[in-house]
Structures are given as structure tokens and as C-alpha cells.
Amino acid sequence: MSIADMRRQYSMGRLTEEALTQHPIDLFKQWLGEAIDAKIPDPTAMTVATVDASGQPSQRIVLLKDYDHDGFVFYTNLGSRKAKELAENPKISLHFPWFFMERQVRVCGVAEKLSVAQNAKYFLSRPKDSQLAAWASQQSQPISSRELLMTQFKQMKDKFANKDIPLPDFWGGFKVKPSQIEFWQGGENRLHDRFEYRFDAEAGWSTQRLMP
Fold it and tell me: What is the CATH number of domain 8-124+171-209?
């Protein structure tokens, strides 16, 4: 079968005006909770899209680590490609691909760095091996082999064997302050339900239905 002929009906649910919340994060909380309860793989996984100085976009999967009415939080090496691109252009897009529930959430906004105190609080809550991995990897930089990476990991493990692992100064988090959030629910015959929230500093959040 040609991939052009691969298709199926989306019929798991609807999204109506009555189901919308005043603040989009309240609807996001509901949908994320339902994704977790449904035990879909990696419900907190999101695509993070950034743009470099030449205008070339790039995307990668990152785990959401916190959220509130002010935005969405993730952590990374501050020397990584995404962090460098955000330093030049803080505009960012997130995408939650809950395909198993025939749902998507798309977020557009601006990324702001978290404080050292916020970074340290989360870093110290991570498993020790995850802390060591942050020290061992210069994220996005070339490396000659996996063996060398594992050697660097072991070196860090030996270095911090009998002591607390400090927060690296090259590691931290971002909070994405959203200006636009879209909720997508698959519908039969490609007549999907799409609602977009937009933020205005004076009027707050407003919603509109989008054509599929």
C-alpha cells in the first residue's frame, strides 16, 4: 500500500465550545491528566521548535517538567543547540502529540531562563545518574564514539562518588510564556475540532474556532 493511501477515521471524541475553560492551562491540565490516566507512552513528551540566526527551524523531543498559569518548563544544557538558538531568538513553539487519543496541543510563546535557585531545586531532585549525565555530556557537540561518552560518564561518577553532585553552571531551565495555545481533537471525515486561545495584555485570553 502506498503511504498516500494510508488513512483512518478519527472518532474518539469531540471538542466543543462548552468544554473550553476560561484559561487554556486549565484545559491543558485536564487533557494532560487524561493522557496520563490513559497510560499513553511519554504523556509529558513535547516537540520543542526553535529557529537559528539564518531562519532555519529545528525540532527535538523534550520532557515537560512543570507548568502553571504562567507557562511550561523544561530543562537543558545551556550550551545545546536549542539554548543557543533561544539566546538569539527567544520565540519558541511546543507541540504535544497525543496521537493515541487523537489529540494535539500546540503552544507558541517566548522562552525565559529560570533562576539559579529554580534550576538547583529541580537538578537536586533528579536521579544521581541523570545528574552525572548532565556533567558528562556537552549536549549537541560532536563526539567520536559512544565509548568516549561512557568514559566521560564514568569519570564523573568517580569524581562525585562520595559527595553531592553540584549544579553545573552550564545547565538550566526555561519557562515558555505562551501567547497562543491551540487544542486539536480529531474528527470524522477530517472535520477536526480546533480551538485557538490568544493572549492580549489588556483583554486576557480569548478563543476562536479554527477550520480543520
Answer: 2.30.110.10
